[in-house]
Design brief:
single chain; 186 residues; alpha+beta; seven-stranded antiparallel β-sheet; 31% helix; globular
Length: 186
């Protein structure tokens, strides 16, 4: 399996270098190194097209794995307490879309409702380089991607919108939240 087992190292080192997890959307929780932002709907993350996006984004920065970490429900207080491992995975970009789907829908200890895909309110996706990071929040139906520098792949992908195009999500994301997101991301 592709599980990440060292919670403290990953959480304290990896997450602290990418974002301030005390903040929540619509706040900008990304560290200052991320200077370009893209937006999409949360439910996209279980699709084959999203896996293709993750693969291409990872290849663009010459990384080899995508790390998926569910932050809510809490990795230690809920997931580790019930299943003796964390709800975080490290997926090689060489897996195909069916394997990706199997990984994120794999049920821990015969509890299908607790698979990453289904029991995830707040999710982070990133890679070894930290040149990009995604933060998704199911409650507000939004994924925000922060990248370092220009990224022509995301700029040309119709599933991700730039800040100026956020109104395209108004049927999915509450308009008041979109206004606050718009003002908080430079």
């Amino acid at each position: 399996m592709y599980r990440l087992n060292n919670f403290e190292d990953f959480y304290n080192e990896k997450m602290d270098s990418c974002m301030d997890l005390k903040k929540e959307l619509p706040e900008n929780m990304f560290t200052n190194q991320y200077d370009k932002f893209f937006f999409s709907e949360f439910d996209l993350w279980g699709s084959a097209s999203f896996w293709e996006i993750l693969q291409n984004l990872t290849k663009h920065y010459e990384d080899t794995h995508v790390q998926v970490a569910v932050l809510d429900p809490h990795p230690e207080k809920y997931f580790y307490a019930h299943f003796n491992h964390y709800n975080w995975v490290n997926i090689p970009i060489t897996v195909n879309d069916d394997e990706y789907f199997d990984i994120i829908t794999s049920d821990p200890l015969n509890s299908p409702a607790d698979a990453l895909m289904y029991n995830s309110i707040k999710v982070v996706w990133t890679s070894e380089s930290n040149n990009w990071v995604m933060y998704g929040d199911r409650e507000v139906s939004l994924i925000v991607v922060g990248v370092i520098g220009e990224n022509t792949y995301l700029s040309s992908n119709e599933l991700f919108l730039r800040k100026s195009e956020l109104l395209g999500l108004q049927d999915i994301v509450h308009p008041d939240l979109l206004k606050r997101v718009y003002s908080n991301f430079r």
